[in-house]
Amino acid sequence: MSRTTTVDTVPAGEVSVAGASRPDPFIKRGTPQFMRVTLALFSAGLATFALLYCVQPILPVLSNEFGVSPASSSISLSISTAMLAVGLLFTGPLSDAIGRKPVMVTALLLAACCSLLSTMMTSWHGILIMRALIGLSLSGVAAVGMTYLSEEIHPSFVAFSMGLYISGNSIGGMSGRLLTGVFTDFFGWRVALAAISGFALAAAIMFWRILPSRAISARPRCDRKRC
Q1: How far apart are CA 150 and CA 21, in angstroms?
Q2: Would you call 180 helix, strand, or coil by DSSP?
Q3: Residue 226 Cα distances to 154, 171, 221, angstroms
Q4: CA 190, CA 79: separation in Å to the nearest integer?
């Protein structure tokens, strides 16, 4: 008795066509999506560090306004950076669960709103609470931004896009200090912080509108290697 084994074969031409039709999962430089991603992350980095460091040049003003020592006034900056570090432990896993874009958009909006509320505080403890919430909120951008880029941008262009993102961080920290100091001299510290908050809110809205929506959910690492 003989057994016949049937082997299904696919013509080589069909295999190549199927492979060629598979879409590239990564965003490449020179495409409209790449421009949108880099602009969105640049503005997010700009707003993040502008909000974080905007109080640094007005520490003496806050000291006089609320009757605290110069050393105590520096807590308004220290508590933000400390809470940002704490938030990094949670926002990364949270973005794995609900997606990168929702976490970053929510983080920017909350930070901008808390910064705006800080201009209405009449007590030093109120300022510190708002600054703590700002730092905690901003961890959602700091922890997720680079992960988003590494997942969405083609590996050949990740370094370039991350460089733009980090440059936004640096420019944001510098401009936040500079603009707050200038505005405080002319209009007072509350108006200065309100202006920075308004800029951050505008950046958050632009970030929400232009960031490609396909990046809402994180791509598993194993899938990325097979892509």
Answers
A1: 24
A2: helix
A3: 14, 37, 9
A4: 19
Which two structure tokens, joined as six digits, stand for 22?
């598979």
Query: Exposed (0-12), middle (13-18) or buried (19+): which is 205, by Cβ within 10 Å?
Result: middle
Closest CA to 116 of 104, 131, 135, 106: 131
C-alpha span between 164 and 134 (Å, rounded): 23
How many whole angstroms separate alpha carbon 171 and alpha carbon 199? 14
Residue ranges and CATH numbers for the domains of the chain are 43-226 (1.20.1250.20)
Stated pTM of the model: 0.79
Mean per-residue pLDDT pooled into runs of 10, the chain (227 residues): 46 45 66 86 92 94 92 93 93 88 92 94 94 94 85 84 86 91 94 94 91 56 49
Residues forming a β-bridge with 27: 153
User: 147 near 92, Cβ under 8 Å?
Assistant: yes
